[in-house]
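Run folding on both entries below.
>entry_1
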Amino acid sequence: MEFENNLDIILKRAQKSNIIIAQIETGKPSRYALVHNHIDLFHFIMSDDPDNHDLFSVIKKKMKQKPYFILDFPQYKFPQITEKEAYEYLKYTLDSIDQVMRKHKVPYSFEKHCHICCTHEYVNDFYKYRFHIVIDKWKHKDSSEARALYRCVLKELPKHIRDKKFLDGSIYSRIQYFPILFNRK
C-alpha cells in the first residue's frame, strides 16, 4: 500500500470497491492510500502502531455510507458536563433516532441496528465526552441523504436539548473522515 500526500490523486485512482484511508500524524501533512478490501485494511491496522497516528476512512460526497452521528462535548461549550448529563444527551439522541425511524416506517430496532462507540478522552485536564452512533444494515446513497436524516433527528430532539448543539453536523461535508477501528481522533 502506497501513501500519497495528494487526496485528489487517490480519488482519481479509486474504484468502487476500494477503501480510501487517511493517515494523520501530529505535525505532519496528511497522507492517503487505497486499500483493496476490508481484510487488507485489517492487516494494515494490526501491523501499525496506532499511537503514532490516527487512521480515518475517507468518504466522498457521492459514496454510500451508513447512517452516522457524532455527539461531541468540547470543553469550551460544556465546561462542567458530568458523565450522567453526557449519557442523558445520548439517550435523547437515541430516542430521537427511534422516533424518526418509526415515523418513516423503517424497520429499525436499537438492538439489531445501533452501534455506539465511546471515544472519551482527556484534553487539557478536561474529560471530553464523545459518542459515535452507527446505524447498521442500511446505507445512505450519499452525504446529502445522510444530512437529511441528521436534520430529522435534530428536529425530533426537545428544543432545550437541541439548543445545546452537541450533535455534530459538520460530518456531512463533501469529504468526510471517520475514525477507523483501533484508532482515535
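>entry_2
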Amino acid sequence: MDKSVTFLGGFSQRLVTNTFFNLLGRSWSFLTTLLLTPYILSHLDVGEFGTWIVLSVFMNSFNLLDLGLGASFVKYISEYYTRQDFDRINRVLFSGLIFYGLFGAVIVAGGLIIEKPLFAWFRVGDASDAYFIILLSCAVHNISAMFLSVFRGIQRMDKSNSLEIKLSIINAIGTVLFLRAGLGIYGLALNTLISACMALVLIWWNVRRTLPNISLGWNFDAALLRQMFAYGAKIQVSRLGGLVCFQVDKLIISRFLGIAAVSFYEVSSRLTSFMRAVPLVMISAVIPATSELDARNDRPKILETYLLASKYVALLTIALVAFLVLEARSVLLLWLGPGFEDSVILVQILAIGYGVNVLGGAASQTGAGIGRPEFDMRATVILSVLNPILSLILVRQFQAPGAAAGTTLAMVVSAVYLLVIFHRKYVGESVWQVIVDIYVRKIGAGVITILTVLGFHLAIPQVASWENIRLLVPLKIALDFALFAPIYVALLVALRQVTAIDWKNFVGLVAFGFEFLRHPLRERVKIYR
C-alpha cells in the first residue's frame, strides 16, 4: 500500500497547501473559542451559558432545513471551475441566492411560531429577544456561507481562511465589548447578527475582486437547482447526523438534567471538538481535490489520496485522543480553573468517540468528492438513529456521562460501517486488512503509551501532584508530553507504522514548507495559477 502513496507533483502541492491554510484557519477559530470561553463564563452564570448554548443549537438546527442545498455548492463550483464555466457558476450562486432569500423568511416566521413550545420543552428561560436576533442571523449566515464556498470550490483555501480569520477577530472583539457592556445573552446574539452581516459584505467583495467573471445578474436555473438539491439531499443526511451527533445530546441533557448541566457538557464538547478539528483539517481539502480528480477520471490518484489521508489522520488522531484522555483533568484545570471537575470524565468519553468519528473522515470526504455521498449518508443514518436512543437510555441511569457514552458508542458503530461499505462499493478491496494496517497497531501504540506515562506517575507521584496547583499544570503537561511523544513515535517505528516513504514525505513537506515561508507570494502564484 505504501509504495505509491507519496507527495508528488503540482496536485499534491496544492492539496498540501490548501490543508496548511485550513489548519491555520481552523486552529485560529478554535483558539479564539477556547480563549473566549473563560471570558464568557466570567460574565454569565452556568444557567445563562447553558441557555446560550441551547440557542446556538437551535441556530445550527434551523440552518439544516435548507434541504441540503448548502452542501452542494463546493462540489458544483469545483466542477464548473475546472472547466472554466463561469456562466454555470453564476447560475449556481444566483439560484442559491433566490432560494436562501425565501428560506430566510421561512426560518424567521417558522421559528417565531414554535418559540413557546420549544422553550418550554427544553427548559429555556426568558430569552425571546436574543432568540429573534438568532433567527435573523441564520438567514444572513446562509447567504454568506454560500459565497464563501466559491473560494473552497476553486481550491483557494488561502482566501477562505484569511476571510474567516478576519471575521473571527471581529466576532471576538464584539463578544468582549457586548459582554463588558453588561448585555449578556442579548449582546452575544446581537454580536452574532452584526458579524453575519459584515461577513456577507466582506466575502462577496472579495469574491468579485478575485473572480471578476462572477456576477449576480438574473441567472436563475431551476433545473440546475434541482440537480443541486438531489446531490445535496444525500449530503444533508450526513449534516443532520452531525447535528444529532454533536448537538442533540445537549438538548437531551437540557431536557432531563436541566439547563445548567448543559454548561458542563458544552465545556467538554468544546475541548474534544478542538481535538477533533485538528486531524479533520488534514482531510478538509479532499472534497474539492477528489472532485477535480473525478472530473479527470483519475481513479488511481483518488485511491492514493484516500490512503494517504487515512494513514496520516490515524497517526495524528490516535495520538491526540490518547494524550487528551491522559491529561483531561490537567487541561480543564489550566483552561477554566477549579469548578469543572465533573467534566473530566465527559472529556475522556467524548474524546474516544470523536476520535473514532475522525478515522472514517477520509472515506466520507472522498465519497463526497467523487459524487458518491451515499456511503456517508448510510453511516450517518445509523449514527442518527443510535445516538439519541443510546443517549436517552443511558442518561437516565448515568446522568451526563451516560449521554456521552451513548454518543461514543454510536460513533464507533457508524464509523466501522462507513469503512466497510466504502471499501466494498468503491475501493473493491477488503476493509479489514486496511483496518489492521492503518488503525489497529496505532491504537495499540497509543494505549501502551498511556500506560507508560501512568506508570511514570506512579513511580514519581510528585509529578502527578503538580496537577493540584494551577501554576504548575503547564509544567506537568509539558513533562508528560516530553515522555509521551518519543514513546509513541518509537512504538510506531517498532510496529512498522512509520516507513522510509513516510520519512520521504516528511522531508518533502518540510522542504516545501520552508520554501513556501521564504517566498509565500511566489509559491502561491505557482500553486494556484
